[in-house]
Design goal:
Number of strands: 15
Strand content: 25-35%
Helix content: 10-25%
CATH topology of the largest domain: Pseudouridine synthase
Structural class: alpha+beta
Shape: globular
CATH superfamily of the largest domain: Pseudouridine synthase
Largest sheet: 11 strands, mixed
Number of helices: 6
Radius of gyration: 19 Å
Number of domains: 2
Order of helices and strands: EEEEEHHEEHEEEEEEHHEEH
Length: about 290
């Protein structure tokens, strides 16, 4: 039996949730090119309810179309497959697929989609009201002594009028809050942080990390540190390829979504992709705390 809970919002209908976690890990949805890029992709189903499904989103694709993005988006790809009558999409029992929140292309992790219009309205309302909980992980340069292990960023954020990014603005920005916690730091000069929010605006975690001076590794848009080479991390190694970066992209991942705060049965989790786990290991950030066991 799959555990069940119910999402209840005053004045809105109740969405029953039936969550299948590890048993659903092996299920996946396929996308032929060019729907999500030049190569075929199969995205694992992390969890599924009666009216929603959570997929493992790789970096390089977005959850929905956005003026800042040129990457393909999962909303369009899912609905194209559904309208074409692809059997594995039909088996989901969806009338539509609608992303519950925007997750920009550089972020890997949990992408949540409603299967009906009513569920989309309800879940987006919950997200907009801050009723869910999200936990991101990211890598940055070690700060050394003096930086607290936990703090909140509360800079109001405003879209830049030219660049595809968010900037802090006390005059015109919208309220934004991110709780940060350092969970690991290595003698190699790197640190692993987590960011926790109930609601997030586009680029919020990236922008707030930059504001509080812990910009994310590889995030050129927000002044993040450059990705080290294998020689930087493993100075004794002499094999071929040591001069190349050990990681490509922005080192941020959405690791956990909780649809009903305090209810572990409504939690969806997603471990970092293999290349990000390898980065943790090479940086010495792969201890128990880095795995979320602290």
């Amino acid at each position: 039996m799959m555990p069940s809970v119910a999402l209840v919002v005053p004045g809105v209908f109740c969405i029953p949730i039936s969550v299948s976690k590890q048993s659903n890990k092996k299920k996946a949805l396929g996308f032929p090119p060019p729907l999500l890029g030049e190569e075929p992709l199969r995205l694992p189903i992390l969890a599924e309810g009666t009216d929603w499904v959570a997929l493992e989103k790789p970096a390089g694709v977005g959850t929905r179309a956005h003026p800042w993005d040129t990457a393909p988006d999962m909303d369009a790809a899912l609905n194209t497959q559904l309208q074409a009558g692809k059997p594995e999409l039909l088996r989901c029992g969806a009338e539509i697929f609608a992303s519950v929140y925007y997750l920009d292309p550089v972020i890997s992790g949990i992408a949540l989609f409603a299967k009906t219009r009513a569920a989309s309205a309800d879940l987006r309302n919950r997200f907009g009201s801050g009723d869910c909980r999200f936990r991101f992980q990211f890598v940055t340069a070690a700060q050394g002594p003096g930086k607290p292990d936990e703090f909140q960023a509360d800079a109001p954020l405003l879209p830049h009028n030219v660049k595809p990014k968010m900037i802090p603005s006390t005059a015109k920005g919208k309220k934004s809050f991110t709780d940060f916690r350092r969970i690991a730091e290595s003698p190699k000069g790197w640190a692993l942080w987590e960011a926790m929010v109930g609601f997030f605006r586009p680029h919020q975690i990236r922008a707030h990390a930059a504001v509080v001076e812990i910009p994310i590794l590889g995030d050129d848009l927000y002044g993040g540190p450059e990705v080290p080479t294998q020689r930087d991390l493993l100075p004794g190694k002499q094999r071929a390829g040591v001069r190349f970066p050990v990681f490509h992209g922005v080192a941020i991942h959405l690791a956990e979504v909780q649809l009903v705060p305090g209810d572990t049965e409504s939690m969806v989790v997603c471990e970092p992709p293999k290349h990000l786990r390898l980065l943790y290991r090479r940086m010495g950030l792969d201890g128990p705390a880095a795995c979320g066991d602290s």
